Task: structure prediction
Amino acid sequence: MSDEIRDRIENEVLMVQRGDRQPNANPPATVADALELAAWFDRYYEPSGKGKSRVPGLKDAKLPAGLGQEMRYLAGQIQDAHVAVSKVGQAFPHQRARVIGREVRLAIEWIAVDDPQLAELAGKLRAEQARHKGESDQIVALDQWLRVAADEQEALADLPAFDMALLDEGRRLVAAFSEPGDDRSAAIVARRDALMRLLQVRMRRIVKAADYVFRQHPAIARGSRSERTQRRVAIAARTRRARPAKGATQPASQPAAGAQPPTQPAAGAQPASQPAAGAQPASPPAAEPAPQD
Result:
């Protein structure tokens, strides 16, 4: 890789690190998808064939030729940062923080049964935390539940099933994780997240370009999406097809809602319109004789 590409990416990293938004993706899975996409990009960058048999390439969308190299560099840096974060955080009891956070959450959700405002707050917190499941995210979640618990200490103290000592232990864990000695881990995480955002931008750009350039070659375009993504798209498509269309009418064979089904004749009874078996059909009434003069 050229120094120019490396310097440009590092400058982008510094700019992205100023933001607060975290990427919603798993680093190892994203790296694997990116390396797969980089190889696909190199394979289909140049057009192939001539005349009517010509197959376009990503070059026709004016994508830079070095995009694959940029993605490999970003993927390598993300991998290194992810390993470094794991090593720095190995000594921290993340599992214990997860357990305490869960216990505090369950207690708050229980006392919120009779408190709509607390129930709404707990629901929002849980939905937000469901999107972030990394080890450092567990500390953030624990801190959030401890802040809610601080306002509900009286109710929690009246709950025999909850151990109030968990609140003090949880606060000590949060304080230990936030000590200056953890600055190196925070810096590594910030860099990793910035690298992830830059990589995701490049991956989305290639996928969009592939959908356009290979619009007449859908089999090639599908290759820009990882096997994991293709499976997810296929499952979503099957779910949509299985879901009944909005406003669809009931089939004619089904009675309308609330309607009484037609009555059935008793077993062995002959329908009123049919003569009994072996019976002679009724003769028409005889004509009256004409009056005599």
Notes: The chain has two domains: 3-91+183-242, 94-181. DSSP finds eleven helices and no strands in the chain. The two ends are 131 Å apart (CA to CA).
